[in-house]
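Q: I have two molecules that I believe assemble together. Could you output structure tokens for the complex as a whole instead of separate predictions?
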Amino acid sequence: MIKWWKITAALLILYTLVWGMLTPVPHLNILYETIRNLFYHVPIWFAMLFQMGLSVVFAIKHLSKNDIQSDMISNQAAQTGLFFALPGLLTGCMWAKFTWGTWWTFEDPKLNGVAIAVLIYLAYFILRSSIDDEQKRARIAAVYNIFAFVMMFVFIMILPRLTDSLHPGNGGNPAFGKYDLDNNMRLVFYPAVIGWVLLSLWILDIKKRLTFLTHAKNEA
Amino acid sequence: MTTQLLSQLIKKEFLLEFRQKSTLAGILVYIVATVFISALCFKKIIHPTVWNALFWTIFMFIAVNVSGKSFMQETKGKGLYNYLYYHPRQFILSKIIYNMLLMTLLSLLTFFFYSWFVGSMVQDMGMFLLALVFSSSAFSGVLSLMSAIASKANNNISLMAILSFPVLMPLLLVSVKLSKHAMDGLAWSVSYKYLLILIMLNFVVVALATLLFSYLWKE
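A: Yes, here they are, computed for all two components at once.
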């Protein structure tokens, strides 16, 4: 059965992919045409953070309700989030190369934060694979998930605001919203965010159904 | 009543540690040997950034070694006994407080040996010691919970490192920044916000650990 929100996701992403290249954008120094990356890079990170947030929500739900389904969804959401980190990193690296002149820099707290986030979720999957018992694995993974997410949140959200960052909105740099983002760009940016988040939900939905089916098959 | 039980538990931890002198002596030798090796390798450190980075790297490995083993000795039988007699909150709090005290002591000792062998470059000693004390306590808080998690997952030491290094990173960066400020002798008005964050992280870590440990506790 095809659901309306899946069609919406496909249409929105198609629209932003095409119109993101065509729409008139403000002509700014250093950024020039790379400003269009805003329509691809930022929504992908939003989708990743959304999935990781979902993962924590289901981890909390698992600890309070003790149902194995929540744990499965939590695991799948973490996988989907990590999957979105890859295009997010690639588009970010490209953007950095053409504006800051380097593919990667250790000076920027957001880049470090992302590297740490990837390490945290890899550690999470290693932890999961090292425990055999299903119930025990679910509980311990949920505990690590919640703890790690809080530390990561501190890292990504609080530390960059204290130190200098090359990203907009941190360390005295103006945020995009202030004056760069004109109405033409808003018309692409907001649909792109919705579209990518919906796409991540779609992927999660398929992965969730697959895991439930595999689990049911193994139980039988 | 509860504080009495807590102090009893902490006393028990110290008693176990001092009864088995080999582990404590082992840690001391570890500290002295690591500092001595780095002193030999670097000969003389001129740049303050290098001094700071090396110190915190040594500190982090010592912290993982010290607090990381806090749940390693908990056997199945002991676990059952503790489960029957203590509340999980008391139990994890006792571990954290014990680790905090031990780690603070050991970090001061590390700093002492480090300044002796490698040479001290700290200008604002008060701020540096504050950074040292608060980061040792936060590190032990994180590592106590990570040790509990690793002990539930077949207890291997590499898992402990994999789990804790990325989680420790925010803490480490704040500590490095704060201690660098102290080394350069910057005014307190510049660095107080990092100290505040460090103290806030202490509270967050302890609160999360006590909250989450009760879920790990049940077998």
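A: One point stands out. DSSP finds seven helices and no strands in chain A.
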